[in-house]
Amino acid sequence: MRRESKVLAIGLVLAGGAVILTRSAAPLAAAGPLAALAASDDTLRLTSPAFRNGGALPRSCTCDGDDQSPPLAWSGVPEGAKSIALLIDDPDAPDPAAPKVTWTHWLIYNLPPSRADSLAAGVKPSDLRGDARMGMNDWKKTAYGGPCPPVGRHRYYHHLYALDTVLTFKHPPDRAEFLRAIEGHVIAKAELLGTYQRSK
């Protein structure tokens, strides 16, 4: 098995392979995929040159390849953002026909809030600068862990958050700790979906 406030409106657009979720007029609580997202002038976008939204992740990003993190790019970070965070998880573990857990593959927080920025493929903890840190994945490692689904085609949600705060933890947070910490601080969110199924 390698490998969650009040809003005014909801905006969802598909463009250029990205899921585009528009910014809230007030901070949003942490939520599951495509939940409680409100519209305003700023549009946060998340894309990857390696796969289209809803498409298959490249083998290089999985346990069957180089197990390296995918290249990602984002734009439309709203004014007022103090940091950017990224969470990749799989809600289909261990079996899409009978999912039991949402499996965390990667967590990065306190990325700088540039209007547009990116992450290259294969990011390691030592590549991060400033206050940026990696949280704990479900292998209890502060690193990327690529898809390695035991059965079926799994979905891998790439959640990008623009936050109105810089996060502080006493130790690397897991997914639950991270989601609690960002409650009330999400001013924009975008999602990108990739899938993967191992060859038999």
Describe the structure in your own words.
This protein has 1 helix and 11 strands. It is mostly beta strands. It has a single domain, classed as Alpha-Beta Complex (Phosphatidylethanolamine-binding Protein), CATH 3.90.280.10. A 6-stranded mixed β-sheet has the order 4-11-10-6-7-9, with no helix packed on it. A 5-stranded antiparallel β-sheet has the order 1-2-3-5-8, with no helix packed on it. It is globular and about 45 Å long. The N terminus is likely disordered.
Terminus-to-terminus distance: 16 Å
Number of helices: 1
Shape assignment = globular
Biggest sheet: strands, sense, closure? 6 strands, mixed
Compute the average pLDDT. Answer: 85
Radius of gyration, in angstroms, nearest whole number: 16 Å
> What is the helix/strand order?
EEEEEEEEEEHE
Number of E-state strands:
11
- Which structural class is indicated by helix and strand composition? mainly beta
Low-confidence stretches: 1-41
- CATH superfamily, by name, is PEBP-like
The CATH topology label is Phosphatidylethanolamine-binding Protein
> What is the CATH architecture descriptor?
Alpha-Beta Complex
Helix content: under 10%
Overall domain count? 1
**In CATH's first tier, which class applies?**
Alpha Beta
